Amino acid sequence: MLQVQREVHLSAHPDGMPSEDNFSIVETAIIEPGEGEILIKNRYMSVDPAMRPPLSNGQQKLNQVMQAGAIGNVVASRHPDFAEGDLVQHRLGWREYALSDTKGVTKIDAQGMSETLYLHVLGTTGFTAWGGLLITGELKQGENVFVSAAAGAVGSVAAQIAKIKQCYTIGSAGSDEKCRWLTEDLGLDAAINYREGSLRHQLKNAAPNGLDVYFENVGGEHLDAALPRMNALGRIPVCGMISAYNAAGARSTGVTTLSNMIYNRITMKGFVVYEFEPMREQFLSDMRGWISAGSMLYRETVLQGIENAPRALIGLFKGENVGKMLVKLS
Ligand SMILES: NC(=O)c1ccc[n+]([C@@H]2O[C@H](COP(=O)([O-])OP(=O)(O)OC[C@H]3O[C@@H](n4cnc5c(N)ncnc54)[C@H](OP(=O)(O)O)[C@@H]3O)[C@@H](O)[C@H]2O)c1
Question: Phi/psi of residue 251, each to 5°?
Answer without folding.
Answer: -85, 130
